[in-house]
Each structure stands twice: as C-alpha cells, then as structure tokens.
Amino acid sequence: MAPQDSAGRISKQSFIVSISVLLVPAILGVLARLFIRLRIQRQRPSTDDWLLVIALGFLLASIIIMYREVVDRMYLVFALGQGMTDVAIPSDIVQVSYKFHLWSDVCLLISWCAFSAVKLSFLFFFRKLIERMRAWQLYWWAILIYTIAVLIYGSLIFFVSCPYFFDPRENTCATGSNKQVIVAESIALAVLDTVGDLLILVIPINVIWKVRVRWPQKVLLTCSLCLTVIMIALSIVRVCGLVAGDMVDTIWETYWQFLSAEVGVFLAAAVSFRSLFVAHNKSYAPNYSIKKFLQQSFRSPQKRDPLTLSDSWLEMPGSDMEALSGTVHATAGKNGITRGEQRGADLEAN
C-alpha cells in the first residue's frame, strides 16, 4: 500500500471496500423491486420505479468514474496537500491534479443526480397517498418544484465553487478564502436539501396518522415510510466533516456523497412494508406461507390460481401505496355514510 493511501480520515482501502459492499444491496434492492412490480403485481413500472432505476444508473456511472479516474489521483493530491513527505511525486503531477479536479467534479455531479433521483422517487411514491386530495396535490407540486430547484443548485455548485479547470489557480480552491466559499455553499446546499426532505416527510406522516390502526402500528409504519431521515443524517455528517485542518477534505466529501447515494437507492427500493397495508385492509387473516409465495411467483400466469393468490403474504395492490390511500379514502367515506345513516335514524325517530 502506497503512503498516500492512508492520507485523510478514511483510508483508501476502507473507502473502496465500504463503497463496494454497500453497492450490492442497492443493486439487489432495485432488482427485487422490479421483480415484485413485474412478476408479482404483473404491472408496468410506475414513475417512482423508473426514477429509482435512473438513480441506480447514475450511481453505477459515478462509481465507475470514481474507480477509474478519481480515487488514485484523489489520495495522491490530498496527501501532497497535507504535506506528506514520503509520497513519490510523479513527473506529470500538474496534469494529475488538473484531471483530478475535472473528474472529481464530474463524479460528484453524477452521484448528486443519483441522490436527487432517489428523492424524486420518494416524492412520486408518496403522491399516491394524496391523489384525491386537492390541497395536498398543490402542496406536492410545490415540493416538486422546490426539489428540482435544489437539484439544479446542487449540480451547479460543484463547478461554480471552483471554476478553474486546467488552470494553476485551482490549487487555491481548497484553502484560504476559496475554502470558505466551498464550505458556505456546501452548508447552504445541505440546509436546502434537509428542508426539502422534511417537507416531503409531511405527506406520509399526515396521512398515516389518519389511518385507523393501533398506535404501535402507526409508529412502525411511520418509521418505515420516513426513511429519508437517514439520508438527512448522512448529509449532516458530510458537511460537518468537510474541513480537515486548513483545507477541504475531498476524500471525506466524496465518501459521504457516495454513501448517501447508495443508502438512498437501497432505502427507496425497500418497500416490502407495503404488505402491512394490505393486511390491514383485509377482513380475514392472511395465510403467511413463504412456500406458497415462492411456488406462485415462479409459476406461469396461466397456471396461477387467482383464488389462492390473494392469500399470498406478498400480495400487492394495484400500486405501491394504493392500499394505504384506499384505506384513507374508504375511512373518510365510511365516516360520511355513518353520519348520513345516523341523521336518517334521527329523522325517523322524530
């Protein structure tokens, strides 16, 4: 291992291993979600599914670029910036620094697009909860515009904060007054991103709390839906450790940016909790048979028995959130009918 591989607070080996390991569940999660959509539900992917696939595509592209063009140059440039004396300086160190700056910005931009696509996937996922609520639809559109605006701002700051490409002035971006500009813009982006996440969380929290289930189940469902809280925490960690000593820690920034994108893709794909909504909508106890589910999943459509399929523990509604949305609207309708019947009974009694 080269001396520069241990530069920074995250070693090169830890960087590569952890990013590679977390990529696996992200890929498997997306594949599992598509399998459920196409094989179990027998439906075409919806908007949130496509956004998740796009997020995974951006994530894979950014990781490939990071492995091929960024990681080696990043540790070398950072080690030299920290003044490590036992690092072998290549003869083309100037070109190495120039290429690192360019490819690092490209890599961070693509990973930010993956992170933003995850947020849009969550937003479209929760839209199904409010499809019949006019006021909440307007709120949803406002949040969509805000999220796109933050996406554009986050895409620009990677280039605006240090616009010197193949220019010696790029060496001053991570230190001095330019460092404060990068830190300030990163903090502003983290704040805007966190506000957007909190605004998105208002939708599931508001709707779930209106569903008539027991309080422990409400807490469980809320925790399942509010997975963006983890993404908020990762963004805060990234910004808090952005500066190391007297310079911007590019290793720290890149690592937590990738970590947030990978965790976000996995969490967006982890939607198995929706089977809980189906269970609450049924008037009978479902038959939780994993063996039956596996047999029915790989059976051809002509041989599947629709009568027994409804008993599967992974039976899905027409859309991911249709069951919960239907529960909310059915509850409201039921309350309206009950009040109407009560008024009729009162008139008959008089």
User: What name does the CATH topology carry?
Assistant: Rhopdopsin 7-helix transmembrane proteins
SSE ordering: HHHHHHHEEHHHHH
**CATH architecture group name:** Up-down Bundle
Order the strands across the largest sheet as they lie in space.
1-2
Query: Helix/strand-derived class?
Result: mainly alpha
Name the CATH class: Mainly Alpha
Number of helices: 12
Total count of domains: 1
Summarize the structure.
The protein has 350 residues and is mainly α. Helices cover 72% and strands 1% of the residues.
Report on the structure:
The protein has 350 residues and is an all-alpha fold. The chain has one domain: Rhopdopsin 7-helix transmembrane proteins (Up-down Bundle). 72% of the residues lie in helices and 1% in strands. It is built from twelve helices and two strands. Strands 1-2 form a two-stranded antiparallel ribbon. Helix 3 runs antiparallel to helix 4 and helix 5 runs antiparallel to helix 7. The longest helix has 35 residues. It is a multi-pass membrane protein. This is Rhodopsin domain-containing protein. InterPro entries: Rhodopsin_dom_fungi, SAT4-like.
